[in-house]
Design a protein that fits this description.
- The complex is a heterodimer of chains A (about 500) and B (about 350).
- In chain A, about 30% of the residues lie in helices and about 25% in strands.
- The model of chain A has no long low-confidence stretch (mean pLDDT about 90).
- The termini of chain A are far apart.
- Chain A has 17 helices and 24 strands.
- Chain A is globular and about 75 Å long.
- In chain A, helix 5 runs parallel beside helix 6 and helix 8 crosses helix 17.
- Chain A has 2 domains: about 230 residues, Rossmann fold; about 240 residues, Rossmann fold.
- By secondary structure, chain A is an alpha/beta fold.
- In chain A, strand 7 and strand 8 form a beta hairpin.
- Chain B has about 350 residues and is mostly helical.
- In chain B, a hairpin with an 8-residue loop joins strand 1 and strand 2.
- The N terminus of chain B is likely disordered.
- Classes of the chains: A alpha/beta (about 500), B mainly alpha (about 350).
């Protein structure tokens, strides 16, 4: 038996075009709560997936109790004693708690399922996790905290040696978080190793024995919790040098194009207020789940709001649908290009005019000549690589698809362009072309709002940055402010305050 | 439109299947190519062709309208009831039928888009039963005949023949006009294009500022209107209306025509020309079986198999296209890597 319950040595995982993990190290002791943190895209998810057998490592070794293991699929990882409680729980809400716990591990009596003993066992396990509940009830009748305990009960039932908890507190209330922490300590006392992935520094300090920081797919360092401070953790997470990949050009700051006041959606957004100006790029920064996408979708009328005021060029507007938003001069390039931006089975020609049918019609008929002309114009100016304007969009590369979405919105001649993660999943060359589009928009006096989870992009392209966390605006930083740097923006995104 | 389609958007294979069937039947039975038989095929096609228009619109939006057959019969029965009540003006009767059919379609659309019922499969299936019942209620469970000529001419009358009923059927002329108008509508207007886009990706279409709820409601309303037209034609062809016919499998014939013609249950696909070929294939098949005096139960078996075959061909074709794309992408990547190595 080795010293560690699970140990990763020099694990590398490549995906086409990216190295997601490079020489990754991780060592979790039995009876240890081990924190794992990193920025968005640092490789946490990939690391979890390698541990749970969803992805197979290209290089490197995984040891469980000192024994070398290869996980070809999730079953092999589970058999080795690694369990994971994902952020999105895998609970069948209509089935009973017992059914959820015993799924695929049913106890049988002859040909039939032995519910009596399963219910008894389920009640016992749940009780040992501090949940005195009736396991016959559907899992959906219980709150998120109990549902999470059901997932943990599954792990306990297979006698897991290590339990990975991926952002376990993100959907829990204060009391439930306390309960979860107590359970973690209880599991620790039983000798189970816990890998605790969290965005919340205070939880790491309260719970963990050691914390490992990863960044850009690489292992940075592991320290005992008393050797970390808030600042040293953040510095360790962001400590990269900025390459100047960003061809930032400046426009002249114009009038206030968009003013958002106290925008609220129950449980999602809390009094979000900010302003965005013509001739500027406003960066919206924050961790995944900070409420940035929800904010822009609410502004765009894609989701209903519970309260708040939106003014465009000083005039209050009430936007209830994307149609009204477009008429008010807003364009939204969504984060999910394939699911919300494009009709993949249709041609470039059709996708380019999807939001501007009227502009491309004469009378009731579509003006194919006009469509062809403007389409060819976009293909050239945006450098969309395609054999023809009648190519099916689903067959283009990610970067070219994104350019089609951009072309679609340029056709609308909006005043406010909202780009939600505009460069996600596209190659470097295409990224620069997207930045150039933003440059030309601000130079034309348009207002650009960019959501990005990549700190270098936020710093490289924004004139001003609004930082969000937990559905709130935490801070606003101008490009010439002393806080306009990775550490301070990251600090605000992780819940710290910026002094003046 | 993909490359293997001719200008109007029909899969060549589908046209070929129709041609092969016609050649086979011409050899098997010399009556097949007689003038009167061809005309009767057109006459038989018309009813299904009307229902298939609305069905196609709904299928393109990734939905379905299972109430088209019952709606057609209900509209026919409504005309019959009003005629019995003393309303004899054919134009007024037909207008009321079209309005009623449209209203039923509007209800289907509203159930889907405003009351947010999950899938039109369920709501239109419910409407099918409602309409069946209504058809029986308005007719008092009686078969009604003796419709005025001004109503029956659409399904009965022909032009260019030696007598009023051995020329080219008026119903099929109306079908052809409707198909041409709908073809232009679907391919050349903003609303037509919106229907395909809503079927391909409803969320992306909505976020592009198109009121997708209205687009969908329009499709189901149109489906109701074309069903009513089918109902009017059915009165002309048979001279009667009968509420119990509302349960016949007219909906499946309409679905089959669309699917054979290239539409897909996943939405975003389908053309008027393809649907016309689909309608003709079904009519020729039924006609051929009648000529060869093959039992009608066998007809149903073969028709069922033809539908399955058509969908299967579509799946195979999609699979092959995806494979070709992968191969092309791999070849391209390899070539790029070679260039890199050479550098």
């Amino acid at each position: 038996m080795g010293e560690y319950v699970v140990e990763l040595k020099n694990v590398t995982k490549r995906f086409p075009g990216v190295v997601a993990l490079h020489n990754m190290q991780l060592a979790v002791k039995p009876g240890e709560i081990h924190g794992l943190i990193g920025e968005n895209g640092a490789g946490k998810s990939t690391l979890i997936k390698v541990l749970t057998g969803v992805h197979m490592a290209d290089e490197g070794e995984i040891y469980v109790h000192g024994e070398k293991k290869v996980f070809r699929n999730p079953n092999e990882s589970a058999a080795a004693g690694i369990a994971c409680v994902y952020q999105e729980l895998n609970i069948e809400k209509l089935l009973s708690v017992t059914d959820n716990i015993f799924i695929n591990k049913w106890t049988r009596k002859g040909f039939l399922l032995d519910y009596e003993s399963m219910h008894r066992k389920a009640a016992e396990v749940m009780q040992s996790l501090g949940q005195d509940i009736d396991p016959r009830k559907p899992a959906g009748t219980f709150g998120m905290g109990v549902q999470q305990m059901i997932e943990i009960a599954k792990a306990v039932l297979i006698d897991a040696k290590m339990i990975i908890m991926d952002e376990p507190t993100s959907s829990l209330g204060e009391k439930e978080v306390k309960q979860l922490m107590a359970t973690c300590r209880e599991l620790k006392a039983r000798g189970v190793g816990i890998l605790f992935v969290s965005h919340k520094l205070e939880e790491l300090f309260e719970l963990c024995d050691r914390v490992t920081v990863i960044r850009d797919g690489e292992y940075i360092e592991t320290r005992d919790i008393q050797d970390w401070t808030n600042d040293s953790l953040i510095a360790s997470m962001v400590g990269r040098t900025l390459d100047n990949l960003f061809p930032k050009e400046f426009g002249t700051k114009g009038e206030c194009m968009l003013k958002v006041e106290n925008l609220s959606i129950g449980g999602v957004l809390r009094n979000v207020s900010f302003e965005a100006y013509g001739g500027q790029v406003l960066g919206l920064s924050g961790l995944v789940g900070a409420g940035r996408t929800e904010t822009v979708r609410a502004i765009f009328g894609a989701d209903p709001i519970d309260g708040g005021k939106i003014c465009i060029k000083g005039q209050e507007v009430r936007i209830k649908s994307p149609k009204q938003a477009i008429e008010a001069g807003i364009a939204l390039l969504t984060e999910d290009r394939k699911g919300q931006g494009l009709v993949l089975a249709q041609t470039i020609r059709t996708n380019l005019i999807l939001s501007s049918f009227k502009r491309h019609s004469t009378g009731i008929f579509l003006d194919e000549k006009k469509i062809e002309e403007s389409g060819q114009g976009h293909i050239q100016s945006l450098r969309i690589k395609t054999p023809s304007i009648d190519e099916i969009v689903g067959q283009l590369s990610g970067g070219n698809q994104q350019k089609v979405v951009i072309g679609k919105w340029i056709n609308n001649d909006a005043d406010i362009y909202i780009f939600d993660e505009p460069t996600r999943g596209i190659d470097v060359g295409a990224k620069v072309e997207v930045y150039n589009v933003m440059n030309s928009l601000v130079k034309a006096g348009k207002c650009v709002i960019m959501i990005s989870s990549e700190m270098p992009e936020i710093l490289g392209m924004s004139d001003r940055v609004v930082i969000m966390r937990g559905g709130r605006v935490m801070a606003e930083v101008d490009r010439d402010s002393k806080h306009f740097n990775q550490e301070d923006i990251m600090k605000a995104a992780w819940g710290g305050s910026l002094d003046d | 439109m993909t490359k293997k389609k001719s200008g109007a958007g029909v899969q060549l294979g589908t046209v070929l299947a129709l041609v092969v069937m016609c050649v086979f039947l011409a050899i098997a039975d010399k009556n097949f190519y007689s003038y009167s038989n061809i005309m009767s095929i057109f006459k038989q096609t018309a009813f299904n062709a009307f229902l298939a228009v609305g069905m196609l619109l709904c299928l393109i939006t990734a939905g379905i309208d299972l109430s088209v057959g019952a709606n057609a019969i209900f509209c026919a029965c409504l005309m019959g009831a009003l005629k019995n009540a003393g309303l004899t003006n054919g134009i007024v009767l037909m207008l009321i039928a079209i309005l009623a059919g449209g209203l039923m379609g509007l209800i289907n659309g509203t159930l889907l888009t405003r009351l947010h019922l999950p899938h039109p499969f369920v709501s239109t299936l419910g409407m099918k039963n409602v309409l069946w019942g209504l058809a029986l209620v308005v007719t008092g469970n009686q078969m009604i005949n003796n419709f005025p000529d001004s109503v029956t001419f659409l399904g009965y009358r022909t032009v260019g023949g030696s007598s009023p009923n051995n020329g080219f059927p008026v119903s099929f002329i109306v079908v052809m006009i409707l198909y041409i108008v709908m073809h232009v509508f679907l391919t050349r207007t903003a609303l037509g294009r919106s229907i395909y886009c809503a079927g391909g990706n409803i969320e992306a279409t909505r976020l592009s500022g198109i009121n997708t709820a209205n687009v969908l409601t329009f499709c189901y309303t149109m489906s109701g209107i074309t069903a009513a037209l089918g109902g009017i034609v059915s009165v002309g062809r048979s001279g009667i209306c009968n509420g119990s016919m509302a349960t016949y499998a007219y909906d499946t014939d309409a679905i089959a025509a669309c699917i054979i013609g290239g539409a897909s249950f996943t939405g975003g696909k389908g053309t008027m020309a393809g649907t016309m070929v689909g309608c003709l294939i079904i009519a020729v098949l039924r006609n051929g079986f009648a000529l060869l005096s093959i039992d009608s139960s066998v007809q149903n078996i073969v028709l069922g198999l033809v539908i399955i075959l058509a969908v299967f061909m579509d799946v195979v074709r999609a699979g092959l296209e995806a494979k070709n794309r992968r191969m092309a992408a791999a070849a391209k990547q390899e070539a790029e890597e070679k260039v890199k190595v050479a550098k």
